[in-house]
Design brief:
The complex is a heterodimer.
Chain A lengths: L5 E6 L3 H13 L2 E6 L2 H10 L4 E4 L8 H10 L7 E6 L4 H10 L3 E4 L4 H10 L4
Parallel strand pairs in A: 1-2, 1-3, 3-4, 4-5
Helix pairs in contact in A: 2-3
Chain B lengths: L4 H15 L9 H14 L4 H9 L4 H11 L10 H18 L5 E7 L5 H11 L9 E8 L2 H9 L1 E2 L1 H4 L5 H7 E4 L2 E4 L1 H4 L2 E5 L14 E3 L9 H14 L5 E3 L13 E3 L6 E4 L13
Parallel strand pairs in B: 1-2, 1-7, 2-6, 7-8
Antiparallel strand pairs in B: 3-5, 4-5, 8-10, 9-10
The chains are: A alpha/beta, B alpha/beta.
Protein name (chain B): Chemotaxis protein CheR
Organism (chain B): Sphingomonas oleivorans
InterPro entries (chain B): Bact_Chemotaxis_MeTrfase (IPR050903), CheR_C (IPR022642), CheR_MeTrfase (IPR000780), SAM-dependent_MTases_sf (IPR029063)
């Protein structure tokens, strides 16, 4: 029997970052969807809730932290894990993300080992 | 980087003589990558030139630097998470019962590289203050690399290093941010010790370790050197102690000194008559 693939929604306003993250996640056996900002990501989650959201901080329309807060008040069949993936690497930002409900935090720049490690920590890889 | 087969063989021999680690033919590509920065820093045009300088024996410090650069220092926090949990949960439970009277545990992380394994252990103990209240827990990390031990002592890790294996909550609880790096909090650094040590030499002095972790290093040793290192560990470890190897490593057919633990899969116990057999050590 084949392995059940996990799903990840990559939310980043940079197409390049989305492409890099998609490539890495696909090698880790994830199915990947993409969104360019928090609003788009929220809409995606209401239609098809992923196992995990890889979330940038600074984006137009709706930022990562705004998305995370909105996610908490949006009725969904299940809550996806949320991993911030951002250049906002200060301890203050990380603490704010955790307080808002983030499960993990990836400091950019990232590599395959980092993403794989964080997914393993959450039991997703 | 171009290199003659003779130069590759000489560099491989130097590494093995100094550390026990072998550079198998399929890993010789690492030589150029590992020594590139050293060549540039020393203004040495090629690996063949480097070998010639080493052969003249005029620069012992260069030899140290070459061996340091060739060592494989790959490691990360909570490596092989499932196996690590087996150790920190079940194996430590069992040892804690056996040491209930003296309330003391000694752990030796042999070939600890830059210290992530040692700090993972320290974090595991620190996360259970009630369980270990009143216990004396000694955690010693050793490695043949002076540079790795120097970094381990400082406990400072780059952004890439800190993100490998370490949950963000634990990072925030146990580390302070220092610019682009993260440093282990002093309270945690004070719980561990590090020293330079070669696995082929006599074990470091101190209390007999109840647990020895020797992960992902003996696989780089030739059979005979692996046996020597295991005999050294067998001579040091407590008779009812536990040896942990890397995931996928086995002692099957490698040594008579240890047997697989029947209950704790992946962990090894000294065979009766072997634990602490080689040397009598004083607490």
């Amino acid at each position: 029997m084949g392995r059940v693939m996990k799903s990840c929604l990559v939310v980043d306003d940079s197409k390049v970052i989305r492409r890099v993250a998609r490539h890495i996640l696909e090698t880790l056996d994830f199915t990947v969807a993409e969104a360019g900002d928090g609003r788009e990501a929220l809409e995606h989650c209401t239609v098809s809730t992923p196992d995990v959201v890889l979330l940038d901080w600074n984006m137009p329309v709706m930022s990562g932290i705004e998305f995370l807060r909105a996610l908490g008040t949006t009725p969904l069949p299940r809550r996806p894990k949320v991993v911030f993936c951002t250049t906002e690497n200060s301890a203050g930002h990380i603490r704010a993300a955790i307080d808002a409900g983030a499960d993990e935090y990836v400091m950019k720049p990232f590599d395959r080992e980092t993403l794989e490690s964080k997914m393993q920590i959450m039991g997703l890889a | 980087m171009e290199m003659s087969p003779v130069a590759a063989r000489i560099l491989g021999t130097l590494l093995e003589e100094r550390s026990g680690q072998q550079l198998a033919a399929d890993r010789r590509w690492r030589i150029g990558t590992a020594l590139g920065p050293l060549l540039r820093r020393r203004n040495i045009p090629s690996l063949d030139n480097l070998v010639a300088i080493l052969g003249s024996r005029g620069d012992p410090r260069l030899l140290d630097e070459v061996v340091e650069a060739l060592l494989n220092n790959e490691t990360f926090f909570f490596r092989d998470r499932a196996a690590f949990s087996l150790l920190t949960d079940q194996a430590l439970d069992m040892l804690a019962r056996a040491r209930a009277a003296e309330r003391s545990l000694t752990i030796w992380s042999a070939a600890c590289s830059t210290g992530q394994e040692v700090y993972s252990l320290a974090m595991s103990f620190a996360a259970q203050p009630e369980r270990w209240a009143g216990w004396r827990i000694e955690i010693l990390g050793t490695d043949v690399s002076r540079a790795a031990i120097a970094q381990a002592r400082i406990g400072r890790y780059s952004q890439f290093e800190i993100q490998r294996g370490l949950p963000v909550m634990q990072m925030m609880r146990c580390f302070d941010q220092e610019g682009d790096h993260w440093r282990v909090k002093p309270s945690l650094r004070g719980r561990v010790a590090f020293t330079v040590h070669n696995l082929l030499d006599a074990p470091p002095p101190g209390r007999r370790p109840d647990v020895v972790l020797c992960r992902n290093v003996l696989l780089y040793f030739a059979t005979e050197k692996r046996r020597i290192a295991l005999d050294r560990i067998a001579g040091a470890i407590a008779p009812d102690g536990v040896l942990m190897l890397g995931a996928g490593e086995t002692l099957l057919g490698q040594t008579d000194a240890f047997v697989a633990d029947e209950e704790l899969r992946g962990l090894y116990r000294p065979r009766e008559g072997y634990g602490g057999a080689a040397t009598k050590r004083v607490a």
